[in-house]
Amino acid sequence: MLEAEFFAGLAEDEINQLGALEIAVRTPPSSRNRRGRNGGQVMDAKVSDEEAGSSSSMLLRLKARFTRRTRFALMFGLPALAIIALVVMMVTGGRYQETENAYVQAARVPISTSVPGRIGEMRVHDNDTVRAGQILFVLDQANPQADVAQFEAALASARARVASLQAEYRAQSAGVRAREEGLAFARSELARAPARRGRHSRARDVEAARHGEEQALAELAGSRQSLAAALASLGGSPNVDVEEHPSVREAAARLERARLALSYTEVIALQDGVVTRVDQVQVGTFVNAGQTLFWLIAGEPWVEANFKENQIAQMRAGQRATIRIDSFGGRAFEARVASFSPGTGAVFLPLPAQNATGNWVKVVQRIPVRLTFVDPPPDLIFAQA
Question: Which domains are seen in the chain, by residue range?
Answer without folding.
Answer: 2-92 (no CATH), 97-102+299-385 (2.40.30), 113-140+265-291 (2.40.50.100), 142-263 (1.10.287.620)
